[in-house]
């Protein structure tokens, strides 16, 4: 069975732990629940299925029942907090806690690099900027960024991008990209970071309305009345459009400037009662 530090979903860990024990002995959900201090023989089965949650106190009991070490128990309880978080800020705090525990014990969460990459706008910008500034030091790169950023922040970003294998240095000491594009992939924790990135980029976009000459930026918009079918068709068009934009951008290896494109398509009314609480 994988180490607990390789998980980000505590329910999956419980299910895998049970399956591993079951394969080696006559282990039952009832026995598991009893050791963890639950009166219901199927409580943990329902937890693993996503039907029930664990309280903070119950999470500690379950971690102990699975014979997790001190830091492993802490990590398991942090996974519970991540799963139960009510908003992105709480999720980010819990996941950063998981990363810290894993890092302290020389372990790497597979989703960790992806989460960190999409958590901060500097990562994607420096990843595009560094290869176009041969021989440049972090201070020069910092001065090239429109949103204010320090040389120390650029240096930390470069170290992360190299450690995450998103940038590398060539034989001349210049930064090059390991891949042309970076996608979010199917990871469970990444959407939390991506939503935060959209907020950051949205705020930066607002600043450029006044801070960047009109010939250097392009803002446009449409307000449309749509059916659900039309909405679905437009979303598909946006997906195809993004592919065409990537193809144009990656056609040449040279970079004059780094640009961000925000494609925002969202409802302005609520006739279907999306915001009504039942």
Description:
This protein has a two-stranded antiparallel sheet. It has 278 residues and is mainly alpha-helical. It has helices at 10-24, 29-35, 43-48, 56-65, 70-84, 88-104, 112-119, 121-129, 138-144, 151-163, 190-211, 228-249, and strands spanning 167-169, 175-177. The model has no long low-confidence stretch (mean pLDDT 88). The relative contact order is 0.08. It contains twelve helices and two strands, in the order H-H-H-H-H-H-H-H-H-H-E-E-H-H.
Query: Could you list the spans in which at least 5 consecutive residues all have pLDDT below 50?
Result: none
Principal-axis shape = globular
- Could you tell me the CATH topology label of the largest domain: 434 Repressor (Amino-terminal Domain)
- Name the helix and strand elements from N-terminus to C-terminus, one letter apiece: HHHHHHHHHHEEHH
- What composes the largest sheet? 2 strands, antiparallel
| Overall pLDDT confidence | 88
Structural class: mainly alpha
How many strands appear in the DSSP assignment?
2
In percent, how helical is the residue content? Answer: 40-55%
Percentage of residues in DSSP E strands = under 5%
Distance between the termini: 42 Å
Question: How many structural domains?
Answer: 2
Radius of gyration: 23 Å
**CATH class label of the largest domain:** Mainly Alpha
- Note the total helix count: 12
Neighbour order of strands in the largest sheet: 1-2
The CATH architecture assignment of the largest domain turns out to be Orthogonal Bundle
């Amino acid at each position: 069975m994988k180490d607990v530090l390789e998980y980000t979903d505590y329910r999956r860990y419980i299910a895998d732990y049970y399956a591993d024990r079951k394969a080696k002995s006559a282990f039952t959900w009832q026995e598991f629940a009893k050791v963890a201090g639950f009166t219901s023989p199927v409580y943990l089965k329902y937890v693993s299925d996503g039907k029930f949650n664990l309280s903070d106190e119950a999470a500690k009991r379950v971690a102990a029942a699975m014979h997790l070490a001190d830091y492993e128990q802490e990590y398991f309880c942090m996974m519970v907090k991540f799963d139960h978080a009510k908003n992105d800020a709480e999720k980010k705090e819990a996941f950063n806690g998981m990363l810290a525990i894993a890092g302290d014990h020389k372990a790497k969460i597979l989703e960790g690099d992806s989460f960190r990459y999409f958590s901060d706008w500097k990562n994607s910008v420096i990843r595009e900027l560094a290869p176009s500034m041969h021989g440049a030091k972090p201070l020069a790169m910092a001065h090239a960024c429109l949103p204010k950023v320090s040389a120390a922040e650029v240096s930390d970003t470069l170290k992360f991008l190299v450690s995450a294998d998103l940038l590398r240095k060539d034989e001349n000491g210049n930064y090059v990209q390991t891949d042309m594009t970076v996608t979010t992939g199917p990871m469970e924790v990444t959407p939390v970071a991506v939503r935060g990135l959209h907020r950051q980029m949205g705020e930066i976009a607002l600043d450029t309305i006044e801070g960047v000459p009109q010939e250097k930026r392009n803002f446009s918009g449409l307000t449309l009345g749509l059916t659900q079918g039309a909405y679905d068709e437009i979303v598909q068009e946006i997906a195809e459009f993004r592919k065409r934009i990537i193809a144009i951008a990656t056609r040449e290896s040279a970079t004059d400037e780094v640009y961000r494109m925000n494609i925002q398509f969202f409802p302005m009314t609520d006739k279907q009662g999306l915001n009504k609480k039942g």
